Amino acid sequence: MKSFSFQLNRRGLITLLMAMLFALPAFSQKMAVQGTVIDENGEPIIGASVVDSKTKAGTATDFDGNFVLNVDKNAVLQVTYVGYKTQNVNVDGRNKLTVKLQTNSVVLNEVVAIGYGTVKKEDATGAISTLKPDEIEAGLATSAQDLLVGAAPGVVVTSNGGQPEGGATIRIRGGASLNATNDPLIVIDGVPMDTKGTLGSNNPLSFVSPENIENMTILKDASATAIYGSRASNGVIIITTKKGQKGRPQINFTANAYVNTPRNYVNMMTGDEFRSFINNYYGAESAQAQALGTYNTNWQKEILRTSVSHDYSLGIGGTVGCLPYRVSLAYTGNNGIIKTSKMDRVTLGVNLTPKFFDDLLAVNLNLKGAYVANRFYDGSALGNSIGFNPTLPVKNPDGNAFNGWTTYVNTSVAGPNDPGASINTLK
Fold first, then answer.
1. What are the φ and ψ backbone dihedral angles of 208, each rounded to 5 degrees?
2. Whose CA is closest to 39, among 2, 93, 79?
3. Domains and CATH numbers, the chain
4. How confident is the prediction for the chain on average, in pLDDT?
5. pLDDT by residue (tens digit) across 146-162?
6. DSSP characters over 244-303
7. Given 97, 157, 206, 281, which residue has the most CB atoms within 10 angstroms?
8. Mean pLDDT to the nearest integer, 197-220
9. H or E element: which one contains 32?
10. Is the pTM of this model over 0.70?
């Protein structure tokens, strides 16, 4: 059995004592703070969150509104509760605190649309989420569906493809039917839209510029069917566009530019690697080997690109006499990362909101128009770019493009077509 001994000389002892003395003030900085959180009427608030803003250590109030928290004597406590304004309290060496929270009247008095009218948020029943574009960090947003991505609980938005105007699959609290549609009902300024799209566009949300949206209300539960019937069984998305306001004319102009680039490419055989594989598998004198080209073509890079998209929005609002008005004009040029895929959209909106009989009668007049030009591409182009022969050139030696090539390795089945011809970019 081994034994160990430890000796401490005088210098080491002095060093240890000094280190302990300097550490004492650091330990003495911590203190137990007791407090009570009450509302404006002096009633205790149960479950209020009390957090040290520096260390993020926190606790919650009990049934009597009391809390105990070990913090630094100069700590700042952040007290929050739903429906009340957040309050920051300086401890300043005090071990007992009383925190009075004020009602957040802005939140409770916020007006939400519920289909047959508007109510205060505190009076609304059912599951409702309200979104305002100005409060959403959506990044690239060329349509209303982009504003919904990750913005509301229970709402899942899945892109339908790489088309600039391809639309998205929207599900509110999942799907409820196996053989019928699970798409929510979309209502724009009180007008229900066909979720299957219209002529020239398969996405009804593409007709609305995000810059012209005032707010979006999502009705999630079955109570929406009392307003819109069975069409609302999968939920309702109510979009309210901006309207004219009383006052002097105001002009708003916004311009945005976005850059889209392919993130990664699928690692495929080069032309040389493919020729070597065919020669080894079939033999250098085989018909398959004789049909090989002499090129090294990366078909993914031939059909993909780095694109630049941009949009512009101009809005003019004010009052003429006693008539509030708003006129908006927006243009969106959305270029996809697939060559030739693009969407050009021009939207025009005129809104008049007069009131009569001492504001007892309000009239909302809307005139909206949209022109959408889409350049579609063959959806199989992406798959073809992976499976197509990399030894063939993009164009013939005379400059004409190949069209309709099929694979030759297995002649019993048809292979992928020329991806360049699929997107019709080669001239």
1. -115, 125
2. 79
3. 10-100 (2.60.40.10), 112-241 (2.170.130.10), 314-374 (2.40.160.220)
4. 77
5. 788 777 788 888 877 66
6. --SSS-EEEEEEEEEEE----------HHHHHHHHHHHH-TTSHHHHT--S----HHHHH
7. 206
8. 75
9. strand 30-38
10. no
